[in-house]
Amino acid sequence: MNRTRRVKIVATLGPASNTKNKILELTKAGADVFRINMSHASHDLMRATVNSIREVEAELNFPIGIMVDLQGPKHRLGVFENGELDVRPGDTITLDSDPTPGNAKRVHLPHPEILDAMQTGHRLLVNDGKVQLKVIATGTGWAKTEVLSGTWLADKKGVNLPDSELTSGVLTDKDRADLAAALKEDIDWIALSFIQRPEDLAEPRKICQGKVGILAKIEKPQAVEKLDEIIHMADAIMVARGDLGVEMPLQAVPSIQKKMIRKCRNAGTPVVVATQMLESMISSPVPTRAEVSDVANAVYEGADAVMLSAESAAGDYPFEAVSTMNSIADAIEKDKGYLRTISGQRPDPEPTGADAISFAAAEIADTLDLAAIVCFTASGSTGLRAARVRPAKKILTLSPVPQTARRLAMTWGTHCIITPDAKDLDDIVDKACRIACREGVAKPGDRIIITAGVPLRTSGSTNMLRIAYIDSDGQGSVYQSGT
């Protein structure tokens, strides 16, 4: 299992794909990370799916990342006396805390935190924005709204709040139960929905205690405004274009995507582009030309990963969807302009030893035309810093920690191998050369550059470079060294 492409693929599992055989097929087709959506999965199904993924991982001897995506707060209207209500622009309707069925004048909004947060002028988008309301008056437990657009309201339609910042956290009681169940399993990532501010990550991080990486889904305008702080607090970011495209003008989403990818790359934080990437493949074996361009743009922009949702979870062609995304990414990365585009966006190194080593390794690999960059990493930080540079040469990451290799499965360009830790510096060189040959990233007669931390097994201490020559037996010897 040696991927030739650098961008990673996240595939959502669901009724169309969550059996062991399907997971095996999708992994061979190109999936690097599997997403389990707790909006639809029970705890028993989640456990069974994790077990199936780990069985496939053992068979293929290839680290696979697992992301459990928490549902987050789902805001919905209450119910109407007749199940629905016809409206037109200019009509008024009051949202209140009264649980009795609604009518033409009022309807229950069973979320006191929303009623507390709404102010005059704030908008509410109902049913994915098909109806837009504006608050014209507020009081304790109620808000009077005017219909700006739309024609129809119905029971329990979803509500989005583009202008209101809620003081409540992002974890619901369901999320806490799902998170507790997920942390008992062998998973790698928790995805948090509807993040609004960096403080929203505090409770999940306290619960997780470093056992898994925390991915923040950016799907609200409030989160976009505080993006720098959220990137600093999170372990990864998702450009969740579905709800983001409801709460913000559609035409703003492409520029926000570009900005988010650029900021994440500058910070060395993995970023995933998600939602409707190959949407037509839910029911078609081939994508539209526009969808191909959408995936290609994310690859050109330097995203760490691109994600499939319903295409792989519930569509008629999950295997074809993953294969298609794999082939698009592979073709783009073979374009001569791709690496020029990626290197042209290279951020400046931060004033740390790890960044200096990573940038130097990329420059030396280019100057000397080395076969690969080999990173020894326990925590994953060396691999993340190497990926931040987006080097032209392949990145081979070696780790004795399975969780580290699996987490790096979502990071750009990193080909991850789980291997026992090196004993000493000579073993570092020999192991790097042998595995580079075995994995096909180098061959006898090639040279590679190795980065590691000394003393060994010290997390976050990347401070060493070695250039090694691979002899005819696939063994290594120091060609040139420096620190």
Plain-language structure description:
- The two termini are 33 Å apart.
- The chain has helices spanning 20-29, 43-60, 112-117, 173-183, 202-208, 221-225, 227-233, 241-247, 253-267, 289-301, 310-313, 318-334, 336-344, 353-367, 381-389, 402-407, 425-438, and strands at residues 8-13, 33-37, 65-69, 84-86, 92-96, 106-108, 123-126, 131-139, 142-149, 152-154, 159-160, 189-192, 213-218, 236-240, 271-274, 305-308, 372-376, 394-399, 414-418, 447-453, 462-470, 476-482.
- With 483 residues, it is of the alpha/beta class.
- The strands form four sheets. An eight-stranded parallel barrel has the order 1-2-3-12-13-14-15-16, surrounded by seven helices.
Summarize the structure.
The chain contains 17 helices and 22 strands.
- Percentage of residues in strands: 15-25%
Shape: elongated
Q: Report the biggest beta sheet as strand number plus sense, adding barrel if it closes.
A: 8 strands, parallel, barrel
CATH class of the largest domain: Alpha Beta
Whole-number total of structural domains: 3
